[in-house]
Amino acid sequence: MNISSNVPRPPSISLTPWEWMRKNLLSPWYNGLLTLLTLGFLYGVGKGILTWVLKEARWEVVTDNFRLFLVGQYPSDQLWRVWLGLLGLSLLLGLTGGVWKGTAYSFARATLVALGIFLLVPASWGTRTWLIANGVALAGGILAGRRFRSRRFQQGVLAGWLLYFPLLVFLLRGRPPLLSPVEPGLWGGLLLTFLLALVSIVLSFPIGVLLALGRRSALPAVRLFSVLYIEVIRGVPLVTVLFMADIMLPLFLPEGLRVDRALRAMMGFTLFSAAYVAENVRGGLQAIPAGQIEAAHALGLNSFQTTLFIILPQALRLVIPANVGQFISLFKDTSLVAIMGLLELLGIGKAVLANPAYMGLYREVYLFVALVYGIFSYAMSYASLRLEKALGVGER
Amino acid sequence: MSGETEDIIICEDVHKWFGVLHVLRGVNLRVRRGEVVVICGPSGSGKSTFIRTINRLETHQRGRIIVDGIELTDDVRNIAAVRSEIGMVFQQFNLFPHLTVLQNITLAPMKVRQWPREKAERVARELLERVGIPEQANKYPAQLSGGQQQRVAIARALAMQPKIMLFDEPTSALDPEMIKEVLDVMRDLARSGMTMIVVTHEMGFAKEVADRICFFADGVIVEEGTPEEFFSNPKEERTRRFLSQILTH
To answer: Across the interface, do A317 and B98 touch by the CB < 8 Å criterion?
Structure first.
C-alpha cells in the first residue's frame, strides 16, 4: 500500500513481551500476587491432569474397542458398506466444496487434513486403503467441482445430497436379493449417532419450515393442524416421543409392515425436532418487514413466489443460530435411544464398561465419548458461524 | 378496447375503513394516459392509503376502481393483471436486502414475465443506465446511499414495463442532498410519457412536472387543478391553510 505520509495515522503501541508482562500481569503489586497464585493453581491442576492422561489412564479401553465405538456390532465382513457410504460422503463433500467456494470449501479442506492425520494412526492396511480412497474421492470431488462450476452442476450436487441419505440407509441395511441384510439393531456407536442425527436434521428442517408457514397460513384447517402439532410436540418430553415411536407406532401400522427400531427412532427425532425448527423459523418469518411483502406483491409476484424468493431466504438466514443450536442439541439427544435398546456412541461406552475386563474405567470411556461429541458439536457451531457470514454479504 | 383518449385509471366513490376509522370517504379520480397527477395534503389525510388501493395493496370496501379496463375485485386474476401493469415506488425503498441490485431488478421479469435471464439482465442494465447508476449492478442495497437505493427501486418497478407508476412519498426518507437525484429521474420519466401518480410534499416538483394537483384532506379530494390554478388561486379555505403552512417557512 502506498499511503502518503501526511495522512494522519492512528498511534501504534508496540510493547516488548517483557513490557507487556509488566503492564498486564505484574503491576500493581496485587496483580503480581494474583498472577503468581493463578500460575500455581494452573500448575497443580495441569500437572494432575497431564500425569493422569499420559501415565495413569488406561486408554486401551478405547483402542481395543475402537471399532465398537465407531460402528457398534456392524458385522466386520460387511464393514466395506460403511466405508463405501463414507466414500460417497467424501465425494459429495468434495464436489460441494469445489462448486461453492467459501464455507463448504474450507470444510472440505479441513476434512482432507483430518484424513491425513488419521493416516498417521496405526491401523490395518485395509483401513488405510479406505482412508486413502476417501482422500482421493474428496480431492477429486474438489477438483471436479472447480472445473464444472455451473448452475446445472450445483443443482446436480444438491440432488446428490438429497439422494445420498436414502441410498446410505439402503446400503447399510441391505435387501436380500441384492445385499445381505444387516439388522439396524446391529448398527451402533458413532455410525448410529450420525445416522440418527443427520437423517433427523435433514428431514426435520423442511417439515419445520412447512409447519412454520402453515402456522401463518390463511387456511384455518392448515393453521389449526400446525398449531396443534407444534404445541403438542413441544409440550411433551423427547423421551416420551421416543417411547411413542418405539411402542405405539407399530400398533398403528398395518399388519406385516414392520419398521426397524433405528428407523422408528429417526422418525421420533424428526417429528420432535420439526416442531422446534418450526418455532425458530416462525421467529424469522415475523422479523421480515411488511414492506418486503408489499414490494414483492406490487411487482406482481404471487404469494408462493413471494414466500420462496423474498421471505424464506431472509427469514432462514436470520434463524441459522437458533436452528444450529437445535440441531446440536438433537445430535447430543440421540444418546436417549438407549431407552429403546439401541447402542449409539454413549450406549456403546456403557456396554464396554459392563465388560469385566474394563471394569471401572469410567473416566477414560466418558472422556473419550465427550471428546467425540465435543468435536462434532463444535464443527457444527463453527459451520453455522461461517455460513452466517457467507450469507450476510452486504446486509445490515 | 381502450383508445388513446380514454382514462386509464377510474376511481369512483372509493371508501375504506380501518376498523371503525373511516380513512377514505368517497374519493373520485380519473387519470388520463400519460398524465402526471401529484397528490398532496396533510399527513393522515389518506393519500398513501388511496394510492395503495390502486394496486390493491389495500382493499377498498365501497366504490369502484378500474385500471386500464380491468375492475379491481376479489378476483385474484384481476389483481395479478392490474399489478403487472402498475409499478410502485415506496417511501422506504423496500429493496430486497438479500439480492444484488441486478437481482432485485431481474427477479420479477424472470419469475412473472418468464423472460430468459439474458433478456432480463440486458433490460436491467439499460434501466440502471437510465437512472444513472450502471456501476452499482453487483452491489447489495445496504451498500448504496438512500438516493441510489430509491433509483434502484424505480428501475426495479420499470423493469416490469408498467403502463402506470405510483410513487408513495418517494423522497420523504431521503437526506436533502439526495432528493434532487431522485426527482431528476422522476422528471425524465414524466417527460417520456409515463402515466404517474405521485404522493409528495415536493411542491417545486409538483409545480414543474404535474399536469394536475389533487389536494387531499380527511379522506377526500378537496380540490384539484393545474399547478398554476392550485398555487396562485386556491379556491378552498382548507387548501389555502395547507399551502400557507408548507410554503411559508
So the answer is: yes
Per-residue pLDDT tens for B94-120? Answer: 999 999 999 999 999 999 999 999 999
C-alpha cell at B30: 380519473
Distance from CA of A26 to the nearest CA of B (A): 46
**Whole-angstrom distance, CA of residue B73 vs CA of residue B78:** 7
Please, what is the Cα angle at A208 between A206 and A209, to 5 degrees? 65
What residues of chain B lie within 8 A of the CB of A296, using their CB? 96
Note whether A314 contacts B98, CB cutoff 8 Å: yes
Give the model confidence (pLDDT) of A193-221 as tens digits.
998 998 899 899 999 999 999 999 989 99
Instruction: Judge contact between B234 and B246, C-beta under 8 A.
Output: no
- In this predicted structure, the answer to whether residue A285 has a pLDDT above a threshold of 80 is yes
Q: How many CB atoms lie within 10 A of CB A383?
A: 16
Distance from CA of B81 to the nearest CA of A (A): 8
Domain residue ranges in chain A: 60-75+187-391, 76-181
Give mean pLDDT in consecutive 10-residue pieces for chain B, a chain of 249 residues.
68 94 94 95 91 93 92 86 92 94 96 95 96 94 94 96 96 92 95 95 93 94 93 90 80
Distance from CA of A293 to the nearest CA of B (A): 9
Interior CA angle at B214 toward B213 and B217, to 5°? 145
Alpha-carbon distances, residue B227 vs B29, B207, B242, B248 (angstroms): 17, 5, 15, 18
What is the band of A388 on the pLDDT scale with cuts at 50, 70, 90?
confident
Higher pLDDT, A260 or A191: A191
Least CA distance to B53: which residue of chain A?
A298
Is B141 part of the contact surface with chain A (CB cutoff 8 Å)?
A: yes
Q: Is B150 on the interface with A (CB under 8 A)?
A: no
- The amino acid that residue B142 corresponds to is A
Topology given in CATH for the domain delimited by A60-75+187-391: MetI-like fold (1.10.3720)
**In angstroms, rounded to a whole number, what is the distance separating the alpha carbons of residues A171 and A174?**
5
Q: Hey, CA dihedral for A139, A142, A146, A149, is it positive or negative?
A: positive
Instruction: Kindly give the pairing relationship between strand B21-32 and strand B7-18.
Output: antiparallel
Which one, of A312, A293, A316, A313, lies nearest residue A303 by Cα? Answer: A293
Asked if residue A342 has pLDDT above 60, the reply is yes
pTM: 0.84
Residue of B80, B90, B142 lying closest to A300 (CB–CB) = B80
Q: Please check whether residue A291 touches B, CB under 8 A.
A: yes
ipTM comes to 0.93
Q: What is the pLDDT of residue B1?
A: 44
Classify B67 as helix, strand or coil.
Answer: strand
